[in-house]
Design goal:
The complex is a heterodimer.
Chain A (H helix, E strand, L loop, with lengths): L24 E10 L6 E11 L4 E5 L6 H8 L7 E10 L2 E2 L5 H10 L1 E4 L13 H11 L7 H14 L4 H4 L9 H13 L5 E5 L7 H18 L2 E6 L2 H7 L2 E6 L2 E7 H5 L7 H8 L39 H5 L5 E2 L5 E2 L2 H4 L8
Parallel strand pairs in A: 3-8, 3-9, 6-7, 7-8
Antiparallel strand pairs in A: 1-2, 1-4, 4-5, 9-10, 10-12, 11-12
Chain B lengths: L1 E5 L10 E4 L8 E5 L6 H8 L7 E3 L1 E2 L2 E2 L5 H10 E4 L3 H4 L6 H11 L8 H11 L6 H4 L8 H14 L4 E5 L7 H18 L2 E6 L2 H7 L4 E6 L2 E7 H6 L4 H9 L5 H10 L3 E2 L20 H5 L5 E4 L2 E3 L23 H5 L20 E2 L4
Parallel strand pairs in B: 3-9, 3-10, 7-8, 8-9, 12-15
Antiparallel strand pairs in B: 1-2, 1-4, 5-6, 10-11, 11-14, 13-14
Classes of the chains: A alpha/beta, B alpha/beta.
The structure holds adenosine-5'-triphosphate (2 copies) and magnesium ion (2 copies).
Chain lengths: 351, 360
């Protein structure tokens, strides 16, 4: 049997213009709303992005900014009372909203797999890991010629996530550490050979050594399987270490997106929020005195400030920022920024 | 702490803390670092008197905390306050913020009913919260994570402690809030002479918090390195400290690529050793000597101690020249072989350019 997927892992940092094939996943002007009437909130507010085959794509933002909701929308599994109120998500050009139930189930199972936030808590305590795998294989007999071939592939995946197959297969979740469970969950999500895997906060509950291991493993999986990776995180350092392309969200809106080098380039055209977020990370390199907190907190989605949502915390804010919501403007390389001040550099008057 | 050993159960062979000694002076900022499960919270609980050590002594102001009685015991209990990782779990969901904070003040006679409101307002200001009656009437679920953590800190400092033990207090917070919470905790030591023990697995956060203070590195119940903060960060002398430093993700893609290319391989596999050096099963430099007898801490710089027979073998941080100048995308660099200077673990799957682990 052939192991891994045929597609080569394209350079994760390539510019969108270089991607000749159509994006594997597209989010087009998507709005997701919770509730009705005046009390309703838009957890995802007119967001567009495109994941190319072979990308490692990061969706980054702080707590409550709508990252998980956006990730759920990629599989059309938004928990009620949330619903898509405008726009759509397309997988290989097909709108999820136009798919039949059967087609959607097939996409969710074998094309776009999800590893949920705190996935390590998702295993049934009295079922072995092997039985979880068998259950999944049984539900999708079309993927492998035989059950044993599927099991063999899972063992291969366990090696990739650096676990010992012989010890993991018969283990119960209580016998594995948090970091190990997280890795089993990833292997399980990959067993049906999806073309995209979406991971919600893959490192959040892990200690630094397990975070480092997770970064190395995800890079390995990307390289060996050619699988496209979308991950959601609040940790910009993880983004810098792993992603090729990045979308930054703030209070439901996309505020910047581009390649990882564009997002982190100092001095370039950047959203002030992204600049502030980078400076707020205490780390082991550089001067401690350069670390700066961001004043204030993320706004409640039900009580958004007028104009730019970041303006009350922004060091560069001008009167216009409190009046008009800035448009998301693109430069000739596809780098998008939604900021009145930063976009002045483009020479494009914002309306 | 003098030579403290702690086990939760006599049935478990290796103690959770093994002959730990440490001293924290007034207004000092000390951090304790180590991986998940290495015994950090246990050490914090012992200092706060929530666990009694199996052997050794925990002293506060020179007195064994377990010998204190009556008034002295009461005073001590207020002097040492613990702040937890999860502010939601540590605040009573059925009590308003005002009641939570007020109860401690009144019970400990730090405020009376007629001036309670004044005290509460002052307290809220100190921790940077909205000092309004409306805010004090809120319940924990009506606050953001950062606000809850500030309330938990307010509760701890409201009883005027001399030492605050802060256990992973920022790990559940957004990155943008971390620094302000760290600044808040630091301000108590600077402005009021409150000492703090800060517990974390992240050397980046620890470095920021204990500026001008000390760091202790613990590997499964044994303090393997201790020293002034910048000294330990810039010149780690224990292989485990080096590993923890190299693991911290950096918010700079260019630097991340360079570090990835230069990073030595390491093994996460290997139980803490019951004999000799606790790190010997994982250590790339371990020799027979390390497996036979436990290395005593030696002073390698002023106030910089390390429990290792071969501290000179630890590479200088960032000294390994980057290999394979970046050609393709960020991930291509990571795959380059070579540059691994720490390779040599006897067990498991050792790869260049990252942490290898086969802990099934
Ligand atoms: N079940 C729900 N009912 C009402 N509103 C909800 C619900 N789930 C989410 N929301 C709203 O959607 C917003 C975004 O939630 P989401 O879980 O997507 O955020 P997130 O960025 O993943 O946050 P976190 O970092 O905390 O996981 C929240 O701020 C909240 O206002
Ligand atoms: N009350 C208890 N009873 C028995 N064993 C315990 C108890 N509390 C902790 N342990 C064990 O003691 C060891 C150290 O636990 P501790 O919570 O101190 O580690 P930690 O360094 O704080 O970990 P983390 O970073 O995950 O919080 C672990 O093996 C843990 O399972
Ligand atoms: Mg989420
Ligand atoms: Mg702990």
């Amino acid at each position: 049997m052939s192991i891994g997927r045929g597609e080569p892992a394209s350079g994760a940092g390539t510019s969108p213009a270089a991607g000749l094939a159509r994006p594997i996943l597209e989010v087009d002007n998507l709005t997701v709303t919770f509730g009705d009437g005046p009390g309703s909130v838009r957890a995802v507010d007119e967001v567009s992005l495109a994941v190319e085959t072979g990308d490692i794509y990061a969706i980054v933002g702080e707590s409550g900014c709508g990252k998980s909701t956006l990730a759920y929308a990629l599989l059309d599994i938004i928990p009620p009372p949330g619903r898509v109120t405008s726009g759509e998500v397309r997988f290989k050009g097909r709108s999820l909203s136009q798919m039949s139930r059967g087609e959607l189930n097939r996409v969710r199972a074998a094309e776009v797999a999800m590893v949920f936030q705190a996935a390590m808590n998702a295993f049934h305590p009295v079922i072995t890991i092997g039985a979880h795998v068998d259950h999944t294989l049984q539900a999708h007999p079309e993927v492998f010629a035989s059950r044993s071939e599927g099991r063999e592939y899972f063992r291969y995946l366990l090696n990739l996530v650096r676990l010992r197959p012989e010890r993991t297969w018969d283990a119960y979740e209580s016998q594995l550490s948090g970091g190990m469970k997280q890795r089993v969950a990833i292997a399980l999500a990959l067993v049906l050979k999806p073309s995209v895997v979406v991971l919600d906060e893959p490192t959040t509950a892990l200690d630094v050594l397990n975070q480092r291991l997770m970064i190395d493993i995800l890079a390995d999986l990307h390289r060996s399987l050619g699988v496209s990776i979308v991950f959601v995180t609040h940790d910009l350092a993880l983004v810098a270490e792993l992603a090729g392309r990045v979308a930054v969200m703030y209070a439901g809106r996309l505020v910047e997106s581009g390649t990882v080098d564009e997002i982190f380039a100092s001095g370039g055209r950047r959203h002030p929020y992204v600049t502030a977020l980078t400076a707020a990370i205490p780390t082991v390199v550089g001067a401690v005195s350069d670390v700066r907190p961001i004043p204030g907190e993320v706004p409640n989605l039900a009580q958004l400030p007028p104009g730019c949502r970041f303006s009350p915390r922004c060091a560069l804010a001008e009167p216009i920022c409190q009046e008009q919501e800035p448009a998301l403007l693109q430069d000739d390389r596809g780098h998008l920024v939604a900021c009145h001040v930063a976009n002045r550099l483009l020479g494009v008057p914002s309306k | 702490m003098d030579n403290v050993t702690h086990r939760y159960s006599a049935a478990v062979a290796r103690p959770v803390l093994d002959r730990v000694s440490l001293a924290i002076r007034a207004s000092e900022v000390v951090s304790l670092v180590g991986e998940s499960g290495c015994g950090k919270t246990t050490l914090g609980k012992l200092i706060a008197g929530l666990e009694r050590p199996s052997s050794g002594r925990v002293r506060f102001g020179g007195r064994d905390i377990w010998s204190l009685r009556g008034k002295e015991a009461k005073a001590w209990r207020l002097s040492v306050q613990l702040v937890h990782q999860d502010p939601y779990a540590s605040l009573n969901p059925g009590l308003t913020i005002g009641s939570t904070l007020g109860a401690g003040l009144v019970h400990n006679k730090l405020a009376r009913h007629h001036d309670l409101q004044e005290h509460l307002v002052a307290l809220m200001r100190q921790v940077g919260l909205d000092a309004t009656p409306e805010f004090l009437r809120r319940y924990p679920h009506q606050l953001s994570g950062g606000q809850r953590q500030r309330v938990a800190i307010a509760r701890a400092i409201s009883v005027r402690p001399q030492l605050v033990v802060a256990d992973e207090v920022t790990s559940m917070l957004d990155v943008s809030l971390r620094v302000s919470i760290l600044d808040l905790l630091r301000s108590f030591s600077e402005e009021r002479g409150v000492a703090s023990l800060f517990i974390s697995h992240d050397l980046g956060v620890v470095r920021y918090f204990s500026q001008g203070g000390r760091i202790l590195i613990m590997f499964y119940g044994v303090v393997v390195e201790e020293g002034p903060t910048e000294e330990v960060i810039a010149h780690p002398r224990h292989p485990y400290t080096y590993l923890l430093l190299e693991a911290v993700p950096v918010p700079n893609p260019g630097l991340a690529r360079q570090r990835a290319a230069a990073r030595a391989s390491e093994v996460l596999e290997g139980e803490p050793s019951g004999t000799g050096c606790v790190y010997s099963n994982r250590c790339p430099f371990a020799e027979a000597k390390c497996r036979d007898s436990r290395p005593e801490a030696v002073e390698v710089g002023v106030g910089h101690w390390v429990a290792c027979y071969f501290p000179e073998r630890v590479p200088a941080v960032g000294s390994v020249p980057p290999v394979g100048e970046g050609s393709g995308g960020p991930l291509d660099v990571r795959s380059h072989e070579g540059g691994a200077k720490l390779v040599g673990g006897s067990t498991g799957d050792v790869r260049a350019g990252g942490i290898a682990s086969v802990d099934g």
